[in-house]
User: What shape does this take?
Amino acid sequence: MLYHLGMLRRVLTVSFAGLLTLGLAGCRYAFVPAVPRPVEVTLTPRVTGASLIRSGSTLTVKARVDGRFEPAYLKVQWFDGSRALGEDSVYLDAAQPTATFTLEAPDQGAYRAVLSLGGVVLRQVELYEVQP
Assistant: This one.
């Protein structure tokens, strides 16, 4: 009789384990949404169409800021090689996204103009008339 009870216990245990296995096989991940939420992307503004040209003894930088940006000052810092020559700024907003800067520079040089908006450097344009 004890033999039959032990055998019955094993059969029931195996059967119960089999039922549990079948129940677990039907589980699915429920925390992943069927349609994910749209991702909101905020692109930083960028300077496009920037150019540095010489006209006689005057250097001119023209730049346009594209993208969404808060109204701020577009600042230019002028360099000849590593020597700082000066700086200037223009207030830009969505209605006025372009700026023109000029610098008197009668001598040829290795000129660079670094453009920044709201303290973040966005672009550098160069005009090398001599070796830097």
